[in-house]
Amino acid sequence: MAATVQPSTRPFTALKTFLHKTGLRSGAVLALTALLPLTGCVSTKPPKGVKLANNFDVRRFQGTWHEILRLNHPDEAGLTRVTARYSQQADGKWFVTDRAWQNATGQWVGSTTEIRNPEEHPGTLRLRHNKPRHVVIIDNDHTVALICSTTAQQFSIISKNLDPDPTRLERVIEQGRAAGFPIKEAFWVPTK
Asked: Is residue 49 part of a domain?
């Protein structure tokens, strides 16, 4: 006779204890629980068919990067002088500080976000509470790169220099075009 598997009641016991300790009604918890699938469901995988750079080194990647070329997507509409500073703190944690000039308001905007375990996911920068950044193409000196988010439509070509070496930049642009990124639809981002 086959044994039957009984579902665990442990999560329900924990929920009952939580409700009792907090004084929340089960309806409120049910509503909050219904929202859980909406949080943290951004895939950390690169877009289908996109291969990550095999020469990516997070330690060499650290520093300030300037956005040079990108598609116009809603997250960055009206932003110029876009930079991202990647750094490792003394405690070993990695962070990225994004900064940009918002033309509509005439003000700087930005945020700092923790990068989760970049050494464990070469080529993918998994940002806490944000979409990942995938390093798809990077030159050997780590000065010009093509990064994308969850789709190939959200890509940027970035450089550690405001005026990148034209040969390196053109090489990354051509490699991006060959990899299927819509380079022709992108625009040059004002850096000054």
From this structure: no
CB 79 within 8 A of CB 103: yes
Contact (CB, 8 A) for 148 and 52: no
Kindly tell me the burial class for residue 44, based on how many C-beta atoms sit within 10 Å of its own C-beta (0-12, 13-18, 19 or more). Answer: middle
Q: What is the CATH number of the domain that holds 139?
A: 2.40.128.20
Q: Alpha-carbon distance 151 to 182, whole Å?
A: 11
> Closest Cα partner for 70 from 168, 165, 160, 159?
159
Question: At residue 149, what are phi and psi to the nearest 5 degrees?
Answer: -105, -130
Question: Has this prediction a pTM greater than 0.90?
Answer: no
Instruction: List pLDDT tens digits, range 133-143.
Output: 999 999 999 99
66 found inside a domain: yes
On whether the CB atoms of residues 125 and 133 are closer than 8 A, the answer is yes
To the nearest 10 degrees (0 to 180), the angle between helices 10-22 and 26-35 is 120
| Residue 179, helix vs strand vs coil | coil
Do the beta carbons of residue 97 and residue 112 sit within 8 Å? yes
Q: Is residue 108 part of a domain?
A: yes
pLDDT in tens, 45-56: 788 888 999 999
Regions in the chain scoring below 50 on pLDDT? 1-19, 22, 24, 26-41
Token readout for 105 is 């308001």
